[in-house]
Design brief:
It is an enzyme of class 6 (ligase). With 202 residues, this protein is of the alpha/beta class. Helices cover 20% and strands 21% of the residues. The longest helix is centred in the first third of the chain and has 14 residues. The structure holds ligand FFO and adenosine-5'-triphosphate.
Length: 202
Amino acid sequence: MIDSQSLRRQLRALRRGLSLATRQQAALAVARHLEFWPLAGAVRIAGYWACDGELDPRPVLERAWTEGRQVFLPVLVGEPPRSLRFAPYQAGAPLRRNRFDIPEPEVASMECLQAEDLDLVLVPLVAFDSTGTRLGMGGGFYDRSFAFPRGANEMGRRPYLLGLGYEFQAVAELIRQPWDVPLDAVVTERALYQFSNAEGQA
Ligand SMILES: Nc1nc2c(c(=O)[nH]1)N(C=O)[C@@H](CNc1ccc(C(=O)N[C@@H](CCC(=O)O)C(=O)O)cc1)CN2
Ligand SMILES: Nc1ncnc2c1ncn2[C@@H]1O[C@H](COP(=O)(O)OP(=O)(O)OP(=O)(O)O)[C@@H](O)[C@H]1O
């Protein structure tokens, strides 16, 4: 089996090599696959600012705004940063670049949510497999931030983790590390995949 670092490097290079037109079409196709999906009834939705060729969640976030849902973007917290908080975000709001050069909302930390306060999280990914195991950029940020026990927030629920990516990021099998937090579903330009990690499923 290919090691995670080589897989990361290969898939990130493929992702960065996509043309703008291909990325835009894929982003719209992903939003279309979610058209009849009720966004899990979510009020508070985290997206991300696409970089490094990532599947752009903006068409999904635009729908969320239209439906009156609240949208958040991840901000790095800690020195050095170890986990994520989620800052309220509206189109056109001021952003500043973090240490990875990814734009974050310029919002006081008091206004930011903790991971467990979200309903739905659109999760960036480098690769995913048929059981919802995710390979990310390698910082462990999503794993650390969503490591709380299932059903841990005050509503007795946990956020629904929906990975967004391209079909070529689907791989046969990733090794699931003890700290890996599995995804509930992944949507690509081709399909919506739901895994048995989702609540209410076997
Ligand atoms: N759009 C987006 N935002 C995100 C993430 C993400 O994957 N995508 N993250 C998901 O966790 C967090 C940031 N995690 C990251 C982890 C590593 C690298 C990265 O590019 N590392 C470089 C070297 C880093 C350095 O300069 O020290 C590299 O691997 O080449 C970037 C982001 C929070 N925000
Ligand atoms: N819950 C956790 N507790 C302690 N360490 C963790 C936890 N989650 C991840 N880590 C550490 O983070 C490192 C990176 O993890 P991993 O390679 O799975 O990141 P990733 O999921 O690809 O990255 P990201 O979430 O930033 O996109 C691991 O080596 C691990 O030591």
